[in-house]
Amino acid sequence: MAINLSSMAFQDSALLPTIRDKLELTWVDASRLTFEITETAAIANFEQTRDMINNIRSLGCKFALDDFGAGFCSFNYLKSFPVDYIKIDGQFIQNLINDETDQVLVRSMVEIASQLGKKTIAEFVETSGTVEKLKEIGVDYAQGYLLGRPEKTLLKSNVFSLQSIVDADQQLKQFHKYTPET
Predict the structure, then answer these.
(1) CATH number of 2-178
(2) Is the Cβ–Cβ distance between 11 and 45 less than 8 Å?
(3) What is the DSSP string of 12-45?
């Protein structure tokens, strides 16, 4: 489950104890939680943000640097913040199939993230064609309406392979091809 945190949340001294208490009360496996912070929010108080990320990760939670590539200093933040995932901004994904420049940029982000031991997540994934291109490029995970709308409850399994999504979409297309119109 992904939870967005604002820059104000990182300034609140109650954040860490609140997360710790909620984990103890709910018995949610901390490794199922990924907290997301945008580059913009991360720079509000660089040192405090980095310390808070380390403290929350020590509870077993994961962290993602959201909207990666949207800011001008992305690589500096990638180097400085101890995050587990890099979420590639949707502006690079929405037209990925048709835009060679987006493909080059996403490929370079994936390569850099991989070299730094971080996994990549593509935002705004809405077509199986985009999933196939992301697989080809080497993106680890995808997020978007093709995979599901936001839910109020946790799914029993929150990990799907990109290939299973492509297969399911192709099966759905075959079903619609043979379904008589009413």
Answers:
(1) 3.20.20.450
(2) yes
(3) -TTHHHHHHHHHHHH---GGG-EEEEEHHHHTTT
Distance CA 26, CA 8 (A): 24
Query: How far apart (Å, rounded) are the C-alpha atoms in residues 145 and 133?
Result: 17
Distance CA 175, CA 98 (A): 27
Distance CA 163, CA 169 (A): 10
Closest CA to 82 of 54, 55, 121: 54
What confidence tier does 46 reach under pLDDT thresholds 50, 70, 90? confident
pLDDT tens-digit map of 63-98 = 988 877 666 556 777 777 788 999 998 999 999 999
